[in-house]
Amino acid sequence: MFLDFMNEVQSLLYEAAKVCGWDQIPTNGFGMLEISPHADLASSIAFRLAPQLSKSPQSIAKDLCDAIEIPAGSMVDRVEQAGPYLNFFMSNSSLASILWEAQGGDCWKGRLSQRVIVEHTSANPNGPLHVGHIRNSVIGDTLARVLRRAGCTVETQYYVNDMGRQIAIVVWGCDHYPLEEIKADHAIAKVYIEANRAITERPELVSEINRQIQLYEAGDPQALGKVKVAVDHAISGIEDTLHRLNIRHDSYHWESEYARSGEMAKLIEQLEGTGLTGWEDGSLQLDLSADGFEKNMVLMRGDGTSLYISRDLAYHRWKSERCDRMVDVLGADHKLISAQLKAALDLLGIPAPEVVIFEFVSLPTGSMSTRRGKFITADELLDEVEKQAYMEVSTRRPEESEEFRREVAREVALGAVRYDVVKVSPEKATTFDWKAALDFEKLSAPFIQYSHARACSILRKADLPEQFDPSLLTGEAEVALIKKIAQFDLIVDKAARELKPHQLATYARELAEAFNGFYRYSPVIEAPSGLREARLALVNAARNALRVTLDTLGIPALESM
RNA sequence: GGACCCGUGGCUUAGCCAGGAUAUAGCACCGGGCUUCUAACCCGGGGGUCGCGGGUUCGAAUCCCGCCGGGUCCGCCA
Question: Which of A2, A404, A433, A470 has the highest Cβ tally under 10 A?
Answer without folding.
Answer: A2
